Amino acid sequence: MAASTDPYLLRTLLWCGRCDVPMHPHPHCGERTYKCPLGCRKVPLSAEAIEAVTWTAAERRATCSGIAPPFRKSVLEQLLVKVILRANAPDDLRYIWRT
Questions:
Q1: From CA 50, how far away is CA 56, in angstroms rounded?
Q2: Which residue of 23, 35, 38, 39 has the fewest C-beta atoms within 10 A of its own C-beta?
Q3: Contact 33, 44 (CB under 8 A)
Q4: What pLDDT score was predicted for residue 27?
Q5: Max CA pair span of the chain
Q6: CB contact at 8 A, 49 and 78
Q7: Alpha helices in the chain (DSSP H)
């Protein structure tokens, strides 16, 4: 497990459910957000909210509640193939878990 300094926990894991492309980190007004690179979503979505919901799902899936924040990206990369954002809400996510 590797420590990460990347402020975007779901970089490469979060996908747009409409376009089937990876969503990109998008700093917006000093806030960490994700946005579809094809522009289908007009409003950037809060990275903090999406990452919190995803981490909670990972904790339910595996014993990882004691993992320090710098190691969470590595844990999610080991657990998930991708996270698909279905609507413009940070809690409308579908997870593709590694088996």
A1: 10
A2: 39
A3: yes
A4: 85
A5: 38
A6: no
A7: 47-61, 69-79
User: From the CB of residue 66, how many other CB atoms can be counted at a distance below 10 Å?
Assistant: 6
Per-residue pLDDT at 5: 92
Question: Which stretch of DSSP H or E encloses residue 33?
Answer: strand 33-35
* Token duo for residue 11: 């970089």
What is the CB neighbour count within 10 angstroms for residue 25?
18
Q: Read off the pLDDT of residues 6-65 as tens digits, 9 standing for 90 and up.
A: 999 999 999 999 999 999 999 888 899 999 999 998 888 999 999 999 999 999 888 887
Distance CA 19, CA 1 (A): 31
Phi, psi of 31 (to 5 degrees): -110, 150
Q: How many CB atoms lie within 10 A of CB 1?
A: 12
Written as six digits, the tokens of 42 are 């007009």
How would you classify the pairing of strands 14-16 and 80-85? parallel
Q: Which two tokens stand for residue 74?
A: 């590595």
